[in-house]
Each structure stands twice: as C-alpha cells, then as structure tokens.
Amino acid sequence: MTGIFDYAASDTTVVTSRAIRRAVAFIESSFAQPVGLATLAATAGLSVSRFATLFRKEVGISPHRYVCLVRIQHAKRLLRDGVPPCEVAAEVGFFDQSHLGRHFRRAVGVTPGHFVASPDAGSACR
Questions:
Q1: Any idea what the Cα angle at residue 45 is, between residues 43 and 46, rounded to 5°?
Q2: Per residue in 81-111, pLDDT tens?
Q3: Which of 35, 61, 98, 103 has the fewest CB neighbours in a 10 Å radius?
C-alpha cells in the first residue's frame, strides 16, 4: 500500500487482510464521494462492527479518520497547484471550506491559507 496508508499505519502494523486492502483501495478511489461505514464494511465483506475493529487494528486509525487524511492529501496537492480552498473543499469531498479548514488544521497544523502561503508548501508536504 502506498500514499496515506504509509502515514497512517504504525511502523509495526501491516495490512494483511484482503478485506481491509479492498476497503483502503475503495477509499483511495472514491474519497471525494460520501463514504459511509456500512459501504466500507460491505466492500470488505464484513459486518460493520467487525470491519471497524479490524480496520483500526490493521491501519491504526478509524476508517473516518483515514478518509479525512486521504482527502487532506489530495487537498494539499490541489492547494499547491493554486486551486482556491473553496473549490478544493468541494473537489475532495468536504462539505464546505470551513469543514476542510477544521480537518486540515487538525492534520497539518496550519490552515489551508497558511499552507499555501508558506514558502515550503510546494516541497515539504509531497
């Protein structure tokens, strides 16, 4: 697995189940759409409770947090490319710019505006 999974998983955790790999692939391909726990569990072929437990065990974070981190990774790329934050929010699946800003600041440590304004935004976060 590549991308956000490397960031999210702990050093000792490796996704071994095919079910969770399917769910991660689904998230990474359709992160901009509403992604519910029931949909992810069905994709993995597991019950909702079993899926949530197994996902957290193998990935190291909740499915919702993983979806947010995938969205933020894509948002960072779009912001570096000069796309306005209000458009980025809609394109990566956040409800609005405020929603993007809250999750972005929690994950990155700065607001999207500060991220774009920082001189190393184009290189440090790739």
A1: 115
A2: 999 999 999 999 999 999 999 999 999 999 9
A3: 98
Q: Tell me whether residue 126 is in a domain.
A: no
pTM, two decimals, is 0.81
Alpha helix (H) ranges present in the chain? 4-8, 18-30, 37-44, 48-59, 63-80, 85-92, 97-108, 112-117
CA 65/CA 103 separation, integer angstroms = 9
Residue 34 lies in a domain: yes
Contact 70, 26 (CB under 8 A): no
**Residues of the chain with confidence (pLDDT) below 70:** 1-15, 119-126
Domain span at 54: 4-63
